Amino acid sequence: MSSDSHKTLKLEEVISENHNVMAEEKPVINVGLQGIYIDESSICKVDGVLGKLYYRGYSIEELANNSSYEEVAYLLLYGSLPKKEELENFESQLKANRTLSESTIGIIKSMSKKAHPTDVLRTAVSSLAAEDLEMSDNSEDANFRKAVRLIAKMPTILAVIDRTRNDLEIVPPDASLGHTDNFMYMLTGNKPNELQSKLINLMFILHAEHSSNASTFSALVTGSTLADLYAAVTSGVATLKGPLHGGADEAALKMLKAIGSPANTETYINDALAGKQRIMGFGHRVYKTYDPRAKLLRGYLEESVNSAPPDVKNLTQIALAAEEIMIDRLGQSHGIWPNIDFFAGPLYVWAGVSADLFTPIFAASRVVGWCAHMIDYWRDNKLFRPLEYYTGQLDLKYVPIEKR
Ligand SMILES: CC(C)(COP(=O)(O)OP(=O)(O)OC[C@H]1O[C@@H](n2cnc3c(N)ncnc32)[C@H](O)[C@@H]1OP(=O)(O)O)[C@@H](O)C(=O)NCCC(=O)NCCS
Fold it and tell me: Of 158, 225, 296, 331, which has the highest C-beta tally within 10 A?
């Protein structure tokens, strides 16, 4: 026996011994990673039993009633509420980074005007990586600067997408306006009125962060390979699109419109449930009670519905009727309650935002949550690599194609 074959034999013995040690028993399988904790984090707490949500220790009600999106973004990214100067500095950084390059605008213009804005947003966000001069710098400081660029540019991207597809002139950012007011200005060409201003700021705050949901997890999986922040955020946008996640707000409004009138609500829901359809904007993997964000939006709608235009009034009445029926059928018994996406539609309609912008607006807000989690995770990075229990065959013999 040559010394080489001796080595091979020893290696095979070692591998076989190792294999015996690792012999597989059927493991507990958590499909969809349900109930699995992936890490510790001090960014966000979702209390699915009590229906509470906290960003860095502050309840969502506290922030929604008192704060601006910029302040909440700072809180999520850096861990504490900013002092006056810190906030001013952060706002200036955001303003300085709002403008898009000709190349990003060109990419948006080159895409079909019929494309869903979330798809165009995903591509435009991905393209930002190509022009970031700090791409090869993976230091935490550089990643914070990249996060600021992403947060600053995503609303502009969205406004450019919407203006381009509607054959309207692109409106450059206005440095006298805050983050969300400027977004509405770039989107509509007009400075927002008080209602629009309040609603969009509220939506951005409520959507900014939500722990290890599907899109944040997806961003983390991408970043855990030590890919860059743009790659992670692009994954986040892609994952957010689905109707079981961020796409539910658009789907819920579509459903409210399909119901048409409060009187038709019960028949519609009965038929949908009998046909095993999901009622969009209801149910949540973690909240088995009323989503506190949905409660805030519902409260706002109920409070102000009398001054709303007729279409918003009608949508609100349908939503309230659907809520009552769903809670009666599936609330206490199945833990299926309204989530944030259910009441968002009528409010966006009131603010003059079209339905296919709901999800990309969600992305333009959630980008801060994705970045905060990513930067935090990189401090003690571990590649995500879950397992799959194989149930197929083994050692099949290769059959040449002509004999199959
Ligand atoms: C969000 C969602 C995926 C979480 O669900 P989950 O905890 O993974 O639970 P499952 O998808 O396994 O559903 C469990 C059961 O509840 C039912 N269910 C869940 N959400 C439902 C809904 N919105 N309408 C009707 N039935 C629903 C399912 O049909 C399933 O019933 P079954 O056991 O008889 O098959 C789910 O509630 C859903 O699809 N909701 C609608 C989409 C939505 O609003 N998404 C936004 C979330 S913020």
Answer: 158
